[in-house]
Design goal:
CATH class: Alpha Beta
Helix content: 40-55%
Oligomer: single chain
Largest sheet: 5 strands, mixed
Strand content: 5-15%
Distance between the termini: 38 Å
Shape: globular
CATH architecture: Alpha-Beta Complex
Radius of gyration: 18 Å
Order of helices and strands: HEHEHEHEHEHEHEEEHHHHHE
Number of strands: 10
Number of domains: 1
Strand order of the largest sheet: 1-7-2-6-10
Number of helices: 12
CATH superfamily: ComB-like
Length: 280
């Protein structure tokens, strides 16, 4: 805990320094053409819906654990079909012949795959996996049904995602992208912002900014959340986050460690059309 306090203190000093230091320029919506920005940032399903109308592609970040599991699965050649809940998952599995992932506590020999990335990493390989989740998976499903491609990003592949977007002509004023931090849920169902998703989004946005992408105000602020933090510091903060602690207390520390392996994957899982799944 002392180490985490030191990191938080360092982060505070970094943010204070940048409050006093002139920021790299970004274009504000009030003084630019509507198409003048290359990258936008928002939170949750509502944010994704808002950006899907104007962006050419949406990047969804749900570090603990949907997009991390998708990245791990893609590395093994598994296609991942998103859906919002178990009921829809069962229907989708029946329609496609895919294997249905169950909740973590329901894993058994006949259903070894779950939202847990360790279950996909350690379990038998499968061609197609149906992966229900109320956050990242549900958001991906909605965006795809709106006709926009979706990329699954996490701490493991943030660098690869940013590079891919630049190489394929995205994150420009002609082809803007929206980066969505999925977040978690409070007990009343409302959005709970999650720092692990903020960090994953920030790393993608930072890679785009380094290539000259013009950022929205929200994207610029999100990108600053990791300025001055080393990979180990980001990993330690994710371990100490509410989501990280919940998983560790429940016995899923391995999932957290898989999630904080920065840039361990070079895959870019993309969902291009409704009825298909994320593929590398």
């Amino acid at each position: 805990m002392t180490s985490v306090r030191r990191i938080v203190g360092a982060l505070g000093r970094v943010l204070w320094h940048h409050r006093r230091t002139p920021s790299p320029p970004f274009t504000s919506a009030s003084d630019s053409r509507p198409d003048g920005l290359g990258a936008h940032f928002e939170w949750g399903a509502s944010g994704a819906a808002a950006l899907a109308g104007t962006c050419e592609l949406i990047v969804v970040v749900d570090v603990l654990s949907f997009t991390t599991t998708v990245s791990v699965a893609a590395c093994r050649g598994t296609e991942v079909l998103p859906c919002p809940d178990d009921e829809n998952g069962r229907r989708l599995a029946a329609a496609t012949g895919g294997s249905l992932a169950v909740s973590r506590h329901q894993q058994e020999a006949g259903h070894p795959w779950s939202l847990s990335p360790s279950s996909v990493l350690d379990g038998p390989p499968v061609e197609r996996l149906i992966l229900p989740s109320p956050n990242g998976s549900a958001i991906s499903d909605v965006v795809c049904k709106a006709g926009k491609p979706v990329i699954a990003a996490c701490l493991r592949n943030a660098g690869a995602v940013a590079a891919w977007l630049g190489e394929h002509g995205y994150a420009t004023s002609q082809a803007p992208v929206g980066v969505i931090a999925a977040g978690e849920r409070w007990s009343d169902g409302s959005l709970r912002p999650a720092i692990e998703d903020l960090f994953g989004a920030a790393l993608v946005i930072g890679g785009l900014a380094a290539g000259g992408t013009a950022l929205s105000a929200e994207a610029a602020v999100a990108e600053r959340s990791v300025v001055g933090l080393a990979s180990k510091q980001i990993a330690d903060l994710v371990r100490a986050s509410r989501s990280g602690v919940e998983l560790r207390v429940a016995g899923y520390e391995a999932d957290v460690e898989i999630a904080v392996a920065m840039d361990a994957d070079d895959v870019v899982p993309i969902l291009r059309e409704e009825g298909a799944g994320f593929r590398r």
